[in-house]
Amino acid sequence: MALRIDDISINTILGRGTSLCGDIKVNGFVRVDGDIKGNLETDSNVIVGENSRVQGNVKSKSIIIGGIIIGNVFALDNVKILSGAVIIGDVISHKVQIEETAVIHGHCISLKNDEIFNKVSGEYLQRQAIKDRISV
After folding, report:
1. 3-state DSSP of the chain
2. Which end of the chain is more exposed for a tag (fewer CB within 10 A), N or C?
3. Sheet holding 19-21, edge to edge
4. Confidence band (pLDDT; 50, 70, 90) for 15?
């Protein structure tokens, strides 16, 4: 997966053996090798390492997933799901690449056309927001 040249340095690392409980919003590239119980949002790229677990939604520009995500994944540019990764939730992106033995239990919205993608993803996010308010 190609990353922008200005996104090659990792701004935030959640190291192996570290756990975070709560939502996190980061400017820049994030690598997760530990556990997060909460939502993760960044304007850049995310790597979820093979031994990591995220229990919450992830929103980013692009994401590479090697671990487990129990929540929805929204990546504007692309999603790469590595062999052995597990996603229990929905995946929304312009491009989605899934390797063998990866598991997705949820819906996948992947549309290259910007206009259609924006319409469909906007409707999806609106339904999710309503659903989240109802369940509070």
Report:
1. CCCCHHHCCEEEEECCCCEEECCEEECCEEEECCEEECCEEECCEEEECCCCEEECCEEEEEEEECCEEECCEEEEEEEEECCCCEEECCEEEEEEEECCCCEEECCEEECCCHHHHHHHHHHHHHHHHHHHHHCC
2. C
3. 19-21, 35-37, 53-55, 68-70, 86-88, 103-105
4. confident
Name the one residue in this structure whose structure tokens are 């992947």. Answer: 110
Q: Which two tokens stand for residue 68?
A: 């487990």
Residue 1 has pLDDT above 60, yes or no: no
Reading the block at residue 59, the tokens are 């929103």
* Cα-Cα-Cα-Cα dihedral sign, residues 4, 7, 27, 38: positive
| Angle formed at CA 126 by CA 36 and CA 78, multiple of 5 degrees | 55
